[in-house]
Amino acid sequence: MRCQDRVGLGELAMKKINVALAFGVLSVSIQATPLFAETVQSLRGDIPVEKPAEIPPVPRTMAVDGGIDVNYEDQPPLIPHSIDKTRITLNQNSCLSCHSREYSKTENAVRPPKSHYKTRDGKKLKQISTGRYFCTQCHVPQAYTKPLVQNDFKSQPE
Fold first, then answer.
1. Does residue 79 sit in helix, strand or coil?
2. Residue ranges at the known binding site for heme c
3. Coil, strand, or helix at residue 96?
4. Under CATH, to which class is 59-148 assigned?
């Protein structure tokens, strides 16, 4: 066959177009990068990432008698006291020394709901379910702090 070893004009033109497009995309992305980088506002302020930031003081934990109101339906209750010395390990959960079924009345503490004593399949248990054992996965204490960013969240009316 004739001209087997020659590149056709159409193929050559397509290669040139692809190379030109690749350079065009590359140049636009390089030029656009500083524009996007300047719009990011860091919580560190003007401190560069390479320099260590000043460590803020540890905020005082809220202590609220009677508990803290929840802001939305099905929100896990907030912990209304300090948990600084509370230990939760595989072998020990010091939350349960006050909040378990057996001690909650004498300690005047909130008892975990029945759902915490059931498996995923709804089978009743005598002890807290292993899926609910690590309380601080859902329940957290609150502290007296200044917001890091503006927050206009409003809870839903009941």
1. strand
2. 81, 95, 98-99, 116, 135, 138-139
3. helix
4. mainly alpha
Q: What is the CA radius of gyration of the chain?
A: 30
Return binding residues: 81, 95, 98-99, 116, 135, 138-139
Q: How far is CA 158 from CA 75, 78, 98, in A?
A: 13, 19, 31
The β-bridge partners of 79 are 141
User: CA angle 146-150-154, nearest 5°?
Assistant: 100
What single-letter DSSP state applies at residue 128?
-
- Phi, psi dihedrals of residue 58, rounded to the nearest 5°: -70, 125
Structure tokens at 95: 């939350």
AA letter at 53 = A
CB atoms within 10 A of CB 77: 15
Report field, pTM of the whole predicted structure over 0.85: no
CA distance 103 to 87: 17
- From first to last of the 158 residues of the chain, give the pLDDT tens digit: 555 556 566 777 788 888 888 888 877 777 666 655 566 777 777 888 888 878 888 888 888 888 888 888 889 999 999 998 999 999 999 999 999 999 999 999 999 999 999 999 999 999 999 999 999 999 999 988 888 888 888 877 76
